[in-house]
Amino acid sequence: MYCTVIEENRCTTKYSSYASATPYHLLYQTVRLQFKYLKKTLNILATNWVHLVGFYITTYVSIALFKLLGVPHYGGGSWIQTLLLSLVSIPFLFFTYGLKIIVGFFGVLVLLDLIGFRFTKSSIRTILLVEWLLIIPIFIGWAFEYEYWLWITLALSFLVTQYWREQKLKRIIVV
């Protein structure tokens, strides 16, 4: 039985002959709706893993590209060292040097997701583009401040992974 109108502990529906509902039934329906909403929210937040994969792939390709172009600080060692050692060193880089950055990045992203998908009725693409526009200036600033050009490629990677996320979010949020 699904309640369509609730007034003074009574539940009326056009699909059932039951004319009243107990307070326990109303509590059950409320809790059920809250769990459904919580599950949807967690599914939205779970789509953020794609950024970590995108950053890994972008870092690997960028290191090879920077070595090919002769960008300083990326040219040491042979090509075999660059291509094979990067497979192991990139996760090490992420979870040692970049751990604070990754935690902060995902923290801000989760906060923006909660605000964007909970309090606005904007389209998915608009919300994701606003997230990108709010986070990217930090990446660009770090690229020029520290002359560490990987931040620029990571900014572009973030845009691409936001597009991938949009495809996943369309399946979660029925538009």
TrEMBL record:
Transmembrane segment boundaries: 42-63, 83-112, 124-142, 148-164
Protein keywords: Membrane, Transmembrane, Transmembrane helix
Superkingdom per UniProt: Bacteria
Name this polypeptide is given: Uncharacterized protein
